[in-house]
Amino acid sequence: MSQPAASRMMADLERLTGVKLYERHPRGIMLTDAGRMLAARARRITQELEDAGHALSKLSSGVRGRVMFGAVTGPALEVVIPAIRQARLTHPEIELSVNVDTSDHLAEALVGGELDFYIGRLLGNIDASDVELREIGPEWIHLLVRADHPLLRRPQVTLDEALAYDWIMQPIGGLMRHTVELFLLHQGFELPARTISTASLLVTLSLVATTNAIAPVPRAVYDFYASQQGLGARLDYLPVDTEISVVPYSIITRRNDPLSASARLFLDIIEARLDAEGPDLRGWLSSE
């Protein structure tokens, strides 16, 4: 900036503020007290503008922003938690908000704009034309018991023997309960004579750990809670001679509603993990 232009700008500032901002001396210009105060404020304002520019750039590139997503329990344990750990390292300025719930509730939250996407199933409570799906794979179910359950002392365990005990099941209408009951009926078994109904995983784990009750749970739930990573819980599963699986689940997004840059970035992390796992996703389970 030339000296005449700087002088005109300083004169304009003095007219705007109504105070003297500088004094001329033989060795140059010296700011008055008012001038020093205005200069300090101007430096802060300039820095704020630069910071805002950097923040807007990060927001548009996806490295900063908020991602609201949901998952049913199995994928939350198996994939979402590792993805969150990775995002904390590579993109720490993204704010992540995760809702772990059943698919029907997650679907309603997605359509209502409360979630960017969720990992679960598409049930009959929303219009399928409103969403897009990437199918992941089926889930596999373990019959969870305490580590010293009487049936574990036997060399082989049959479902008939397991049905003699209390079973902890989802409330009537839950997808997993419906799947387990259909499986038993199709295999020619009676339904459990004694059941405890609860949607709470905490209640389920507490009852299994302290009683002889049996609980059908996603394999990912067993893998997490029966391991040292899962606080070393004293849990095991019944090695019955047949496996139970539930229909596949998917990554579900709203149709014709592009994800924000940050949501797209986080979903890319999840999809990269999926691609690395390949087609065999037996560990990916959920608990509708």
Automatic annotation (TrEMBL):
GO CC term (a single one): cytosol
Domain HTH lysR-type: 1-32
Keyword DNA-binding among UniProt keywords: yes
Gene Ontology molecular function: any one: DNA binding
InterPro entries, per database record: HTH-type_LysR_regulators, LysR_HTH_N, LysR_subst-bd, WH-like_DNA-bd_sf, WH_DNA-bd_sf
Membrane-crossing segments per the record: none
Top-level taxon of origin: Bacteria
Keywords: DNA-binding, Transcription, Transcription regulation
SUPFAM superfamilies assigned: Periplasmic binding protein-like II (SSF53850), Winged helix' DNA-binding domain (SSF46785)
Family label: Belongs to the LysR transcriptional regulatory family.
PANTHER family assigned to the protein according to its UniProt record, in alphabetical order: HTH-TYPE TRANSCRIPTIONAL REGULATOR YBHD (PTHR30419), NITROGEN ASSIMILATION TRANSCRIPTIONAL ACTIVATOR-RELATED (PTHR30419:SF8)
UniProt-recorded name of the protein: LysR family transcriptional regulator
Organism: Pelagovum pacificum
